[in-house]
Specification:
The protein is an alpha/beta fold. It has 12 helices and 7 strands. Helix 1 (8-20) runs antiparallel to helix 2, helix 5 packs across helix 6 (100-110) and helix 6 (100-110) packs across helix 7. The radius of gyration is 28 Å and the shape is elongated. It starts with 7 loop residues before the first helix and ends with a helix. The relative contact order is 0.08.
Amino acid sequence: MMSSKIDMFSQINNAVLDLQASQMQTYERPLKTLVRLLQHPSLVEVNRTLVERVDFDAFIAASEKTGGSMVGSQQLAWPENQIEALGLTLILLEKMAHDPDYALNFAHHYYYSGSKVIAGIHALTRQLIIPFARDYKAYVMNNGDVEPKIIAPKSNNVFIVHGHDGEARESVARFLGNIGLNPIILHEQANRGRTVIEKVEAHSEVGFAVVLLTPDDEGRVKGTNELEPRARQNVLLELGYFIGRLGRENVCALKRGTLEIPSDFAGVVWETMDTGVGWKQALGRELSAAGYEIDWNKVMRP
């Protein structure tokens, strides 16, 4: 039986959509659902950080002093700090879910949209809750960093670090090509009078690296006679280079056969390159986690 994970933010978005389409008889349910999702155990620490430095009562008191006696003339006194605004909105939503009449009165008072009371809920949803859901997701997904940044698109170039195992190298290259990525193999690139490490540096503008750990060499501890299979030294050097350049999350080591893994790389996750499609699934998962869109139908092709 197949299992699937439900995306929390998709469920939050669904609750917001249901609230936007609700009527007087139905608005309470999506409102309570929204707050229940926001109170999920995985979000408790995030929410605590957001609300611990805000004063909701002072916020409401300042808002009451705006405008005149006309209905709908008051404006909410939002702080300039976006994180504080998120915390105040969290508290507000919790109060609304606890007392739906409070939600009606609040919406009518600050989001007046005509004689129909439900129109205030709809205006509240459009102007406050929808932007909150968007900004709250961004806050959570970026670990509390709300400063905008320019994010370069993920390069489709994937560097393949390899030793003498040509079959493994070509299998990985074909797999990457089949799922729409561009494999970079060093010996296929023009030398242009450069050393090997200069060629590596020249072609290191990639989004990901696959390192093939294959038993191409043998070595032993000094003073012993037992030889052990090892990966080539250039492979280990380039493994360390790409970990430093791209970060461990953008490097996947595929181990084929029996060989010694250097102790310095004990913390690096590696996958076994078996004879089936298991290694393709493992590499596909790592690429997906690194931000690549993966067509799993292509991954499963022989």
